[in-house]
Amino acid sequence: MTENHSNSDSDSRNSSKRLVKILVIVGIGIPVLVELMTLFNLINVQIFDDEEVQEQPEPVAEVRQVTEGDTLFRDYRFPVTIELLRINVSAQEWRFELGLSVPDSVDREPLEIELDSMQLNSGKILAAGRNRSWNIQEGHTPPRIQAEWELPNGDIPGTLYISSFQQMQNDTASRVQQEVPLGNIPVRYNRE
Amino acid sequence: MIVFFIATVVYGFVAMDLKVIGNYETIDPQNLSDTPFGTPGVKEVTKNGATEYEVYVQTLQFAFLPGTSSPITVPADTRITFYITSPDVLHGFDVAGTNLNTMAIPGQISKFTTIFPEAREYGIVCNEYCGPAHHIMEGKIEVVPKSEFDKSNLVE
Amino acid sequence: MTFLHQYPKAAKVAKANFIVAFIALAIGGLFGFIQALHRTDVFRGFFNSGEYYTLLTGHGVLLALIFTTFFIAGLFVWGVTRSLDREPENMTFTWSWFWLMTIGLIMTAVTILGGLVPDSSIRAAVLYTFYPPLQAHPAFYIGLALVIVASWMAGADWFWSYNKWRKNHPDERIPILTFMALFTMMMWYVCTIGVAVEVVGLLIPWSLGWVTEIEPLLPRTLFWYFGHAVVYFWLLPAYYVWYAILPKLSGGRLFSDAMTRIVFVIFLLLSTPVGYHHQYADPGISVGFKFYAMATTMLLLLPSLMTLFTVVASMEHGARQRGGKGYLKWIGKLPWDSPAFVGCALAGIMFAAGGFSGMINASMNINLLIHNTIWVPGHFHLTVGTAVALTFMAISYWLIPQLTGRKLKFKTLALIQPYAWFLGMTLMSNAMHRAGLAGVPRRTAEPQYSGFEFEPIFGTMAEMDWQIAIGGTILTISLILFLWVITASWMGGEKSDRPVDDYIPEPLSGAEHTPKILDNMKLWFALAIILVLLAYSFPLWEMISDGIFEPGALPRPS
Ligand code: HEM
Ligand SMILES: [Cu+2]
Ligand SMILES: [Cu+2]
Q1: Domain that holds residue C2
Q2: What single-letter DSSP state applies at residue A92?
Q3: Cα(C99)–Cα(B42) distance, rounded to whole angstroms?
Q4: In a domain, A65, yes or no
Q5: H/E element holding C157?
Q6: CB C12 within 8 A of CB C402
Q7: pLDDT-derived band of residue B15, with 50, 70 and 90 as boundaries?
Q8: Which of C119, C224, C214 is closest to C554 using CA atoms?
Q9: Domain tally, chain B
Q10: Are residues A51 and A18 in the same domain?
């Protein structure tokens, strides 16, 4: 009995010694290693700086992003211009505003514009919701559309999916959808 | 060691073109329109017979004006003096990776002079928290070769 | 007999302060974890980037202001009571400062957390520096003012005990544990005047709408009048532990009583006039005054170097008592299996590293390279985030048993904890320093920009981000271990009359060799005030003479 007991006692003392060893190696050894590597790299850079060839960053195939003043449905009968693109920020709100205008020549056929959905930079997708579709009737000039979204605080729209019911060349009407990569949206404080 | 550190800094003052900011010069933050900040941008001036440039920048929630919507374009190898102020809250004006780094404080004018040695682009970061969209506040400085500097974008 | 049985009233007060401190540590640490994942873009699913700033305000306020202040209050209650051998003079007074401080904390915390409630108008995303014209809910400032006033009352409580003690012991030296506490509090009085004037005189009337405009530079300057000294308010209690308790934990005794007192005197004198070194990049303060602040800052290295020397000497003495030999071999004889010792020792080592990066911050011209970059959090996670916080955690393993009369549970976990903190902090802080050199800003939810890329001197941005995230995760695990061990021991530890050996031996070179003038509190306090006036009266006059609220800016709700 007693022998057994003292055995397990020294066992536990040994195992606690081993634990300390592991802890010192991992808990102090790795940090020392990390710092030494940093020091080495720093010195390395200082000494061999001149030889380093300035690497030109690979030109990324840039998607042209759409900003204020750009035109959507450019090749169709009724192009749509982005008049307003802006995020209004104040203490409690983070509101995205989009203003579109269509040319005055909407005098014969009615034009239909629908905002289908929007993908935010965080990855979230906002569905259309209500009141996101407009029928621009005859004599409605100058037709201007304005839409607002309350976004999660801090989030920024990345892509807008918009569709329009357009008259085609061959006099048939059809629905066309455009994917609009938004860029450079001004974010401004809103005094109101 | 302490003496050594103070000595390095004194050396820094004397030997280098040091850019520490510091003079008490106030401005009414609610009335920038009547000041040179009312037409922010790059201005040409002549000092001691040499052509230099002054850049007036407003930092506002959440943009550098100019800098964000359009880059601040200046020539290389030329003395450039920046004047920076804010109409709203505190901001930072940090040319990333350099020691051009100042606070923009409403009511105060930050001023520093520098010479960009080579033509290249720099990012400007707002490095003082200025509100919920602080992290999107960025801008650009485009340093172009002296010979290619286009003066048509200067402001009066 | 342990502290609990000898001074049951004081033990209760100290415990109450520690409970609040640990709750603040738990919540603040959780926010730190989320920040480390969010800003590195490793995981952003917890909160959105606007809410990030609410979390960051919570992290800064709860850890830097609340955790520290409450822990220090508990520590000093323990030290003053024990070294003067008196319970607090009047329990009603003592409990009233505790509750006032707690009410202040709750007001402040509620306004901060309000920012996470959708559409709430109670918000305070102004960070722990609360620079106007960003404006928080008035209760945020009022709560802070209550915390400060209550901390003054706490200091008065200890001076009260000291005066009563003095009547009975007219010729004795101030006991070292009380000496250190009182000098720390004197420094606290000098430096909190600045923030009290700022909050009560400027920010509260302004947040209530009594005045509409505010000049941003004046409150900012008043804040930093307080803001650097507050660093020493956190640090001195860690020194307190290193001087008074660590030698004992390493098996020896304090090296020199005189050295200890000199160090605290120097801190009282020099802590406050250095505040401009946080404003090197500010317009509106002349270079001359910045230079003065820099020189003083460099001088402040001196007492820290002295501390390093004294503490290492005491530990070496301890190790040799335990049979340590050789030039460096004695280090192996230190009790590397005692959680309290390991935590304090690793905290000290990190502080030395933090001191080095601090010297770089303090140099005006180099400072501009890293001002407001993530380098700065990299630096102060070594100092306040480890030298102070890890020391406090480690010494809790030794104090809590004395205060609760219960033995520590889960000793193995307690031992892993400081090593894990050291590992995690090295990883996080190392990468923060490196990223800061590349220009990555601090206090930024998404420091990834569309128009340009940061160019690190070596390594890549992605690698640094991962290092920060992994380091932050290890830190969080370490924090959970700490909270678990403390909670379990507090609730269910084995009861014992003597759960730890709490005897503190006399110093090698005792108070009888210490010049008497060091105990002259009036002299040193007056000198400290004069040095502050020299540094601050002219710049403040410049800011005030054109009108206290001029040039005025309008408030912006945060
Ligand atoms: C679990 C451990 C911790 C983690 C993971 C952590 C993480 C972080 C991170 C990533 C930041 C930078 C945020 C930014 O600038 O965007 C930060 C800031 C900060 N941390 Fe910690 N931290 C921890 C513990 C502590 C402790 C123990 C303290 C002090 C007692 C502390 C005090 C601060 C302060 C004062 C700031 C600056 C807040 C500001 O800029 O307003 N942290 N922390
Ligand atoms: Cu900004
Ligand atoms: Cu900002």
Answers
A1: 1-172
A2: S
A3: 57
A4: no
A5: helix C138-168
A6: no
A7: very low
A8: C214
A9: 1
A10: yes
Q: What is the span of the domain harbouring residue A109?
A: 71-189
Dihedral (Cα; C83, C84, C90, C91), 10-degree rounding: 20
Whether residue B62 is contained in a domain is answered as yes
Q: How far is CA A29 from CA C111, C329, C428, in A?
A: 43, 17, 16
Q: How far apart are CA C147 and CA C99, in angstroms?
A: 10
pLDDT tens for C446-496 read 888 888 888 887 888 889 999 999 999 999 999 999 999 999 999 988 888
Does a structural domain hold residue A129? Answer: yes
Q: Counting ligands in written order, which one lies closest to the CA of residue C231?
A: 1
- Considering the domain architecture, whether residues A94 and A163 belong to the same structural domain is answered as yes
> Which residues form the domain of B135?
24-149
Of B135, B128, B140, B147, give the one whose Cα is nearest residue B64. Answer: B140
Pocket test residue of C68, C381, C466 for ligand 1, highest count of atoms within 8 A of CB: C381
| One-letter identity of residue C458 | F
CB atoms within 10 A of CB C237: 25
Looking at residues C256-261, what average pLDDT do you find? 85
Torsion, Cα A81 A83 A87 A91, to 10 degrees, reads -150
Q: What is the pTM of this model?
A: 0.89
User: C216 and B138 in contact by Cβ < 8 A?
Assistant: no
Q: What is the CA angle C305-C310-C312, rounded to 5? A: 95
Number of domains in chain C: 1
Choose one of A60, A85, A102: the last residue of a domain: A60
What average pLDDT does the segment C501-518 reach? 78
Same domain, A81 and A52: no
| Average pLDDT, integer, range C178-198 | 91
> Which residue, among C201, C133, C224, has the nearest Cα to C536 in the 3D structure?
C224
C200 assigned to some structural domain: no
Q: Which atom of ligand 1 is nearest to the CA of C25?
A: 27
Work out how many domains chain A is built from and give that number: 2
Closest CB to C542: pick one of B24, B103, B134: B24
Q: With 80 as the cut, is the pLDDT of residue A106 above it?
A: no
User: What mean pLDDT comes out for the span C285-296?
Assistant: 68
Which two structure tokens, joined as six digits, stand for C34? Answer: 């989320």
Length of chain B: 156
- Any idea which residues of C carry the catalytic annotation? 228, 232, 379-381, 442-443
Which tens digit of pLDDT belongs to each residue from C329-367?
788 888 888 899 999 999 988 888 887 777 777 666 667
d(CA C231, CA C238): 11
Residues at Cβ < 5 Å from ligand 2 ion: B 91, 126, 130, 137
Residue A99 sits in a domain whose CATH number is: 2.60.40
Residue C335 pLDDT: 85
In terms of phi and psi (left: phi > 0; alpha: psi -120 to 50; beta: otherwise), the region of A123 is left
Whether C155 contacts C93, CB under 8 Å: no
Asked whether the predicted pLDDT for residue A110 surpasses 80, the reply is no
Q: Does B2 reside within a domain?
A: no
Q: In this predicted model, which residue has the larger pLDDT, C291 or C190?
A: C190
- Domain shared by A46 and A89, yes or no: no
C419: chain A residues, CB-CB within 8 Å: 23-24, 26-28
Give ipTM to 2 decimals. 0.84
- Select from A38, A60, A82 the last residue of a domain: A60
CA distance A37 to C426: 12
Mean pLDDT of C195-208: 90
- The answer as to whether C252 is a domain residue is no
Model pLDDT, residue A178: 81
Q: Is the dihedral of CA C14, C20, C23, C24 positive or negative?
A: negative
Phi-psi region of C16 (alpha: psi -120 to 50; beta: other; left: phi over 0): alpha
Angle between helices C8-39 and C68-84 (to 10 degrees): 150
Contact across the interface for C557 and A91, Cβ inside 8 Å = yes
Can you give the pLDDT at residue C448? 86
Q: Cα separation of C504 and C514, whole Å?
A: 19
Q: Tokens 């569309």 identify what position?
A: C450
- Residue A163: what pLDDT? 82
